[in-house]
Amino acid sequence: MSRFTDLFMGMLGAAPKKPEKVAEKVQKIMFLKYEDKDRYIKEKLHARDHHIVSHKWRNRRWAVLIATNLLFVFSFWLDIQILEGALTASRFVGFHLIDLNSALQVMLAHKHIIVNLFIGTFTVFLLWVLLGGRSFCSWVCPYHLLAEWTEALHLKLVEKKIVTDHEFHRGTRTVFWLLFALLAVVTGYTVFETLSPTGILSRALIYGPGLGLAWVALLLLFEIFYSRRAWCRYVCPIGLTYGAVGAISPLQISYHVEHCFHEGDCRKVCLVPHVLDVTVKGRAAEETMGLGPDCTRCGLCVDICPTGALRYEVKGLSKLL
Amino acid sequence: MSAPKPAMSLEKAQKARRKFLRSLGLTGGVIGLSLLGYIPVTQAKTPRLRPPGALNESDFLSSCIKCGQCVQVCPVQAIKLGEINDGFGIGAPYIDSREQACDFSCDAVQCILACPTGALTYEKPEFLNVRDGARMAAAPILIAKQKDPEPTLNLKERTGVARLARPEACLAVQGKGFKGLARGAAFKGKMRYMDVDRWKPIPLRDHPYDIPLCDLCVRECPIAKAIELRPVKGPDGVERMTPTVLEPCVGCGVCEMICPVEPAAIVVDAQAVWKGGAA
User: Fold this and answer.
1) Which residues of chain A carry a pLDDT beneath 50?
2) What confidence score (pLDDT) does residue B135 get?
3) Where are the domains of chain B?
4) Is any Cβ of chain B less than 8 angstroms from the Cβ of A203?
5) What is the per-residue pLDDT across B190-212, written as a single tens digit (0 to 9) for each?
6) How many other CB atoms sit within 10 Å of the CB of residue A288?
7) Mean pLDDT, chain B, as a whole number?
């Protein structure tokens, strides 16, 4: 199977595979890397010493996420009318924008598509094909930000051995996606919308808080005390919809095996650590590898990597420049 | 050929089994919770009054994308959004007419214009059925636009029908007049008064009345010939002036908002259809 298919299956829940064939160049890199163990350790420590810990990408991302959501809020509150509506559907200076998963739910439930719905959906589709589908999750979704903050709390509690993380099968999200699609068709209601913390939070920010926030709070508590980032990792069909859309996106995080010491700091901070399986020693087949569709392009790995082995990249652009 | 996989250790197998069961539990739990959304939509005692142009309730809930763009364009902020206790109606717009009715001060039914999915629509697609009595006999005439070249509202179906629910409380029926603020000084609801400003609705509390026989519901009804005071014989055989709802009623709820008695003598039955003949 091609790398593309493997990554896509990985997003649906398949376990990452070891490469069948490793490129000669990579074999050479790995050989040189481990040829002299003392040198390798020295280089590693040197890199660590010189690593300036920064939260550059995280800060930029938080700024974008907050700014986007505030633009929604102020468009209504201050009546500046730039981005009207909520995350499920809106108008940006008059142009329809429609969330892909919400559109899908409505289309399946109502079984009728009007022109505005199609236009808005198509615009957003193109946007996220370009920007990398799941970038929506980490750069826009308000639940992602809250969950990121409570995740820090969860990790502290784990460290103190007060709680343990209970993992679910990653394929559960695929099952949810199918079930919610099926439920929309069968019941004729947009069933997922009832529980979607993304929609609930977006509306609460814009139109004022409501009882739905209690559900969001319960989810966060579940993530703090029971399972790390459970909603985003194992449930949310929005993530999978955007993941599929971004599968061919030129914007991605790329991994450069030459600079990697295979220590796995990146996997510890990642929302979807299976996409970083390539960073395990012996798993990289090519010199440069994209992380695939499930990666939310959040940049936490880029920030934490002491050697710059993980970078933002626009496919084709680096060759052009 | 790769070497045959070593048999999974017992511990590992147990761990995988637990993870599988846990995932199954999560799936059942979340899907189960989401289906609780059925309860409010099937058990609702009184249906919600939807904004103008709303499709039939089940079609409306399936096609509404829960974005609130209709909320944002309403000049009198009549539209509210359902909460999680509305189940599948979460995020779907409704109007509480006693608090703030739709008085069509926007003229063009802006909420319909704003709707990106056609849940609110001027023109229903053909495959969606129209309930008997929901379709207006003629395009409703907006009194505010009566002198315009196009005096009608682009509205094909009514959202409900007004009904004199408590005739015994109605001031007109009692032969009483009304003096003062229709809903008191604390009431926040707004309405457009053509003699004040066509494009700027003002709070009801800024518009006192002094009328010999209360006819607020008739006087402030935005639709032409939708309601009138008629002498009607009561059960005791005495004729009294009674607000009588007529076929052009679109169910906007202004009469319910303006009614000065508490609770309102006249109410809008949400999603009700016209049952009498054409008046």
Assistant:
1) none
2) 93
3) 46-270
4) yes
5) 999 999 999 999 999 999 999 99
6) 14
7) 92
Euclidean distance between CA atoms B159 and A71, whole angstroms:
33
Amino acid at site A268:
K
Is the pLDDT assigned to residue B279 strictly greater than 50?
Answer: no
Distance from CA of A109 to the nearest CA of B (A): 5
Q: Which residue's entry shows tokens 């099937």?
A: B42
Q: What angle do CA B205, B206, B207 make, to 5 degrees?
A: 90
Q: Count CA atoms closer than 13 A to B130's CA, side-chain side.
A: 17
User: Which member of B19, B61, B116 has the closest CB to residue A169?
Assistant: B19
CA distances from B60 to A91, A111, A204, B102 (A): 21, 12, 22, 18
pLDDT in tens, B10-67: 899 999 999 999 999 999 999 999 999 999 988 888 899 999 999 999 999 999 999 9
Q: How far apart are CA B273 and CA B275, in angstroms?
A: 6
B85 neighbourhood in chain A, CB within 8 Å: 211
pLDDT at B2 over 60: no
- Could you identify the residue written with the tokens 């809250």? A146
> What ipTM does this complex have?
0.90
**CB < 8 Å to B61, chain A:** 189-190
Contact B93, B119 (CB under 8 A): no
Contact (CB, 8 A) for B163 and B178: no
Q: Which of A78, A189, A201 best tests the B interface by mutation, with the highest count of B CBs <10 A?
A: A189
**Cβ-defined contact of B66 to A175 (cutoff 8 Å):** no
pLDDT range class, residue B278, cuts 50, 70, 90: very low
Which of A90, A187, A193 lies at the smallest CB-CB distance from B90? A193
pLDDT score, position A79: 86
Tell me the chain A residues in contact with residue B23 when contact means C-beta distances shorter than 8 Å.
168-169, 171-172, 234
Q: Is A79 or B264 the better-scoring residue by pLDDT? A: B264
B67 → closest Cβ in A89, A169, A212: A89
C-beta atoms of B62 and A168 within 8 A: no
Cβ contacts of A216 within 8 Å, gap of 6 or more: A143, A146, A197, A200, A201
Residue A59, chain B, CB below 8 Å: the answer is no
Confidence category of residue B1, pLDDT binned at 50, 70, 90: very low
| Min Cα–Cα distance to chain B from A112, Å | 8
Distance from CA of A123 to the nearest CA of B (A): 13
**d(Cα B147, Cα B150) in Å, to the nearest integer?**
8
Taking the CA of residue B68 and the nearest CA in chain A, the distance in Å comes to: 6
Question: Which tokens go with A313?
Answer: 């990249």
Q: Residue B121 and residue B253: Cα distance in Å, rounded?
A: 19
CA dihedral A303, A309, A315, A317 (to 10 degrees): 90
How large a percentage of chain B has pLDDT more than 90?
Answer: 84
Interface test with A, best of B24, B30, B86 (most A CBs within 10 A): B30
- Kindly list the residues from chain B whose CB atom is less than 8 angstroms away from the CB atom of residue A179: 27, 31
Residue B6 binned pLDDT confidence (cut-offs 50, 70, 90): low
User: Nearest 5 degrees, angle CA A95-CA A97-CA A98?
Assistant: 150
